[in-house]
Specification:
- The chain has 328 residues and is of the alpha+beta class.
- The chain has 2 domains: 2-120, no CATH class; 125-312, Multidrug efflux transporter AcrB transmembrane domain (Multidrug efflux transporter AcrB transmembrane fold), CATH 1.20.1640.
- Helix content is 60%, strand content 9%.
- The protein has 11 helices and 6 strands.
- A 6-stranded antiparallel sheet has the order 4-3-2-5-1-6.
- A hairpin with a 2-residue loop joins strand 3 (51-54) and strand 4 (57-60).
- The chain starts with a helix and ends in a 16-residue tail after the last helix.
Length: 328
């Protein structure tokens, strides 16, 4: 609302300014960069110590107030744009400005540049992090179950659950559906840090429920060798506990949705949806249905992995005691 007021009530363009700083540049270098920036798409005007520029040309000589753009060693360029800073167009403009060649070093600041740099810092290593999480999950579940299919199933179902949660968050907080009910003002964007935080918490809780359910199913399958009965008994033994645990966490997180801070409201509602969906639809329906349909294929693994599991696998069952021969 503050940004809207500045844009509508003031004509200086400060709400859509893209500051550019040249720490060590002379007048010729400042002018050259100002000319290049003013020729970019979505740039309305560039004001600096050497004058005002628009459409790649100088349109006004510097006035007395223009001295504020220079301190004698460096200069500041006020880039006024028609693009909203926190938007794809604003991010593209930052990239276009940073891609220009200049005779001296320069830096781009402002909300748009801050968003670009934040996204790069947060999401730059996300692919590597996802690979590490997937590999660690696969290895641990394989060591527990001795199966190749079950870890893959667990990762896929967790991703589907989280994808549905993120979709709901976009529908509510980015598109503004239910804004009046939840008492927030939609901005058309989501806080950059919240999806990563939600992924870490929700994926960890989902895998916790997965291990809890699978351990009971695996225990029963080892005892009877019947997958169908093992799934039914495993769900029966863990269903009430998982439902109660999910309900406790859901009540805790839904309390965050009453906050007057939008990103806390986003995290609270998002985690509530993720937990309830995982404990009911995923663990109560999809996991048992998948394992029932897969049958004995659930426990398949190539021979060399079976040998690896027999040697290093994790098991709750006590190992058989080795007979001790006592000579009298």
């Amino acid at each position: 609302m503050v940004g809207d007021s500045v844009r509508e009530d003031f004509s200086g363009g400060s709400a859509r300014s893209f500051p550019v700083v040249m720490p060590d540049a002379n007048a010729e270098q400042v002018t050259a960069l100002a000319v290049d920036i003013s020729a970019l798409t979505d740039v309305s005007q560039v004001n600096t110590s050497t004058g005002s520029f628009a459409d790649g040309t100088k349109v006004a000589e510097p006035e007395a107030a223009a001295q504020r753009f220079s301190d004698g060693t460096g200069s500041y360029l006020d880039v006024v744009s028609s693009a909203e800073p926190v938007s794809p167009a604003g991010e593209q403009l930052v990239a276009n400005i940073r891609g220009l060649e200049a005779g001296a070093p320069y830096l781009v600041a402002g909300p748009a540049a801050d968003l670009v740099d934040s996204k790069k810092a947060i999401f730059g290593l996300v692919p590597l992090a996802l690979i590490l999480i997937a590999v660690a999950t696969f290895v641990l579940l394989f060591l527990m179950t001795g199966s190749v299919l079950i870890p893959i199933k667990a990762i896929v179902l967790n991703v589907l659950s989280l994808g549905a949660t993120f979709g709901a968050m976009v529908w509510v907080f980015q598109d503004g559906n239910g804004a009046e009910l939840l008492n927030f003002t939609p901005t058309g964007t989501l806080n950059t840090t919240i999806p990563i935080l939600m992924f870490c918490i929700a994926f960890g809780l989902s895998m916790d429920y997965e291990v809890f359910l699978l351990s009971r199913i695996k225990e029963e399958h080892d005892r009877t060798g019947d997958t169908t009965a093992a799934v039914a008994i495993g769900l029966q033994k863990t269903g009430r506990i998982m439902t109660a645990a999910a309900a406790v966490l859901a009540v805790t997180f839904i309390a965050f949705a009453t906050s007057q801070v939008t990103f806390i409201k986003l995290m609270g509602l998002g985690l509530t949806i993720a937990i309830l969906m995982d404990a009911t639809l995923v663990r109560g329906v999809l996991v048992p249905a998948f394992m029932r349909l897969a049958g004995e294929a659930n426990w398949w693994a190539p021979p060399w992995l079976r040998r690896l599991h027999r040697r290093f696998g994790l098991s709750e069952a006590a190992s058989e005691a080795t007979p001790v021969v006592v000579r009298v």
